[in-house]
């Protein structure tokens, strides 16, 4: 079993972070199931680690059941128990939990949770839901990505209805769902995934993401002049992030003669493909902590064409850095970007419209400034402790509801 370790993720400096505990939350015993808690860094597991850190600071007990690897991307927050998993075909950096496993089952019985939280609809998640239902324990599911949209990026769009049906069966066996944005929550309601759906939004660490992180010397070190207007991409370099749409849009800007630079932040299996499509872009690889804040603040506009996010952490991080955002009109972005106020929302895949929106920012410094300032102001609404308290209160509500019906 992995021992609790201090996460490298900074925690917000609130009274609760200083050591005060909430007596109601100290009664919680949370069994959290994750298909990827810390072996590959992404927005979903960053949020889960922050949640666990918050719960532990409130005196709650938490156990995480997830695949454990020899060299994870970052230290885990909390105690981990390994579940059996296999590498994903063609994406070996990811692992698919294939069972709950005897060790995890014995640990669950000994830990005796009073609520189960599942964060991915994999086999271990299904088994965890069954385990909880057999014991009349409440189950909360958190939705972190649009799994139903993934097949279209691999020429498998025909299986989307089947995948949606499988997800519906999984989520309906849970007592409630939390989604990171109101737009995603509405999609889940429309798909009839569950009838108890509330928000678990996302926060932004303003010690890392703020306009003061902008660094012209760092830009110059990557071949970007002070007067260059930088269009940035931030995220894992995989096709489902809309890399093809991004590249096609940049091609159109180049053809139309609008001078700009492209900055790509991130790593992933599609990096070679993306570099071949954008030969003049500055690829700076993975950035973390203050380095990431510096890279984001050094953009002039973020271009996020992805439709798979349920929230869009990268969008919020750019907003906190006073960077306007051009994004696909999709779940997540719709809850953060106010069209023509702090960025632009464009129909997914509409390359010409994306190019036109980017053109306005490339050619209008005053517009960039005004929309960037509006985005920074909106980002102030997203504080991590308040957001995670909402999840904890959902745990308590579900426990009370179960107790009433026993």
UniProtKB/TrEMBL annotation:
Pfam families xref list: Glyco_trans_1_4, Glyco_transf_4
Domain Glycosyltransferase subfamily 4-like N-terminal: 42-205
Species name: Novosphingobium nitrogenifigens DSM 19370
GO MF term set: glycosyltransferase activity
Stated name of the protein: Glycosyl transferase, group 1
Record keywords, A-Z: Transferase
Domain of life: Bacteria
Region of interest called Disordered, as start-end residue ranges on this chain: 1-22
Compositionally skewed regions (Polar residues) per UniProt: 9-22
């Amino acid at each position: 079993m992995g021992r609790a370790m201090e996460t490298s993720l900074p925690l917000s400096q609130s009274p609760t972070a200083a050591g005060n505990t909430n007596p109601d939350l100290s009664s919680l015993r949370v069994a959290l199931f994750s298909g990827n808690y810390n072996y590959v860094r992404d927005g979903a597991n960053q949020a889960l680690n922050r949640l666990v850190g918050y719960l532990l600071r409130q005196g709650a007990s938490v156990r995480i059941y997830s695949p454990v690897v020899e060299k994870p991307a970052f230290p885990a927050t909390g105690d981990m128990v390994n579940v059996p998993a296999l590498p994903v075909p063609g994406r070996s950096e990811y692992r698919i939990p294939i069972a709950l496993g005897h060790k995890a089952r014995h640990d669950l019985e000994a830990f005796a949770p009073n609520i189960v939280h599942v964060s991915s609809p994999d086999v271990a998640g299904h088994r965890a839901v069954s385990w909880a239902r057999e014991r009349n324990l409440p189950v909360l599911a958190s939705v972190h990505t649009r799994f139903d949209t993934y097949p279209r990026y691999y020429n498998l769009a025909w299986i989307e209805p089947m995948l949606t049906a499988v997800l519906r069966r999984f989520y309906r066996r849970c007592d409630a769902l939390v989604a990171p944005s109101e737009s995603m929550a509405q999609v889940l309601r429309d798909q009839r995934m569950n009838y108890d759906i509330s928000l678990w939004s996302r926060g932004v660490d303003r010690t890392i993401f703020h306009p003061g992180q902008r660094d012209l010397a760092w830009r110059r070190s990557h071949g970007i002049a002070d007067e260059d207007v930088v269009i940035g991409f931030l995220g894992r370099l995989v096709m489902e992030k809309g890399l093809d749409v991004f590249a096609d849009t940049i091609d159109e800007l180049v053809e139309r003669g609008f001078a700009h630079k492209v900055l790509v932040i991130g790593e992933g299996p599609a990096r070679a493909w993306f570099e071949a499509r954008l030969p003049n872009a500055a690829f700076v690889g993975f950035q973390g902590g203050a380095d990431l804040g510096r890279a984001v603040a050094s953009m002039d506009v973020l271009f996020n064409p992805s439709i798979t996010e349920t929230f869009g952490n990268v969008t919020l991080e750019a907003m906190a850095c006073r960077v306007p955002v051009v994004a696909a009109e999709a779940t997540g972005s719709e809850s953060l970007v106010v069209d023509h106020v702090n960025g632009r929302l464009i129909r997914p895949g509409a390359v010409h419209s994306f190019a036109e929106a980017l053109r306005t920012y490339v050619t209008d410094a005053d517009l960039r400034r005004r929309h960037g300032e509006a985005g920074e102001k909106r980002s102030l609404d997203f504080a991590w402790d308040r957001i995670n308290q909402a999840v904890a209160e959902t745990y308590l509500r579900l426990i009370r509801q179960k107790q009433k019906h026993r």
